[in-house]
Amino acid sequence: MPNMAWYYGLIAIGIIITAFALRRRRNLADWLTYFLFTTACSWVGESFILFVFHGYDYKPGIYRDLFANNILGHIIANSSYWAATAVAVMYYRTPARWIGVFSLGFMLTEVLFVRAGIYEQHWWRTWMTGICAFAFMLLMKMWYILLQNRTFAFPRIAVFWTIAWIMLQTPTSVLMLFDKQFFRVHWVENAYRDSTLFTGFVYHVFMASAVLLFMYVPKGWYWRLVPFVMLATTDTVLFHMGILQIAGNWNLIDLISIRAITLAVIYLLEHYSLREERVEGQETAR
């Protein structure tokens, strides 16, 4: 638990930064959309470093398994500290020099975590974190400006693709931490890493694309039911193939119910948030 206290600190910092950001733009639906967008972008970037190339390890000390701890640390760091800072940068259109200062703050945090023994670097180095933090926050700021300009529909559509992906991926990651379900394709030996690689880089990428396709291209609300049918069918097939492995009191019906709720939240966010960022004609896709 002493290790975990440091990660609680990241959550506290994220809450403080979020309160500061909400002073600028009080619409909670918009904030949630931007928060999920920045979280998803940070998840994607770190997933390559952490789960594909194993550049470092988080050590919150909750689980015996190395990658279970990595998943927990990954969720906390990116869904609080990184995402909250990125949203604040977007809202305030922070100048590059201050983004540089924030990047130094991320580097300092990493140094403290390494010295406390709750984060271990392999081939990754702290200066890389500084470069990635600066590039990430600068990209988020530029994307926000593109959304506000309303010149092209693509920036807003891309936001909701990332949201669809993270909304599909998050229950999978959380359920793994409770040992309720895994997707085992045996690309690697570790079950947590194996499941993350398959769902995060293949399965939910494809399904998020399907969600966006049936949300924007065909006319008629009933087309939005197609991704649910696809998810329910594919999950059932993967379960009977032995790829989707379910344990404890969790079952396939529970998972399908989570899928339905997830899709409903995605559709509600698309409908009720970022209304000012819609370009002309985009509303006809609903």
TrEMBL record:
<feature type="transmembrane region" description="Helical">
    <location>
        <begin position="6"/>
        <end position="22"/>
    </location>
</feature>
<feature type="transmembrane region" description="Helical">
    <location>
        <begin position="198"/>
        <end position="218"/>
    </location>
</feature>
<feature type="transmembrane region" description="Helical">
    <location>
        <begin position="225"/>
        <end position="244"/>
    </location>
</feature>
<feature type="transmembrane region" description="Helical">
    <location>
        <begin position="158"/>
        <end position="178"/>
    </location>
</feature>
<feature type="transmembrane region" description="Helical">
    <location>
        <begin position="250"/>
        <end position="269"/>
    </location>
</feature>
<keyword id="KW-0472">Membrane</keyword>
<feature type="transmembrane region" description="Helical">
    <location>
        <begin position="124"/>
        <end position="146"/>
    </location>
</feature>
<feature type="transmembrane region" description="Helical">
    <location>
        <begin position="71"/>
        <end position="92"/>
    </location>
</feature>
<keyword id="KW-1133">Transmembrane helix</keyword>
<feature type="transmembrane region" description="Helical">
    <location>
        <begin position="99"/>
        <end position="118"/>
    </location>
</feature>
<protein>
    <submittedName>
        <fullName>Uncharacterized protein</fullName>
    </submittedName>
</protein>
<feature type="transmembrane region" description="Helical">
    <location>
        <begin position="34"/>
        <end position="56"/>
    </location>
</feature>
<keyword id="KW-0812">Transmembrane</keyword>
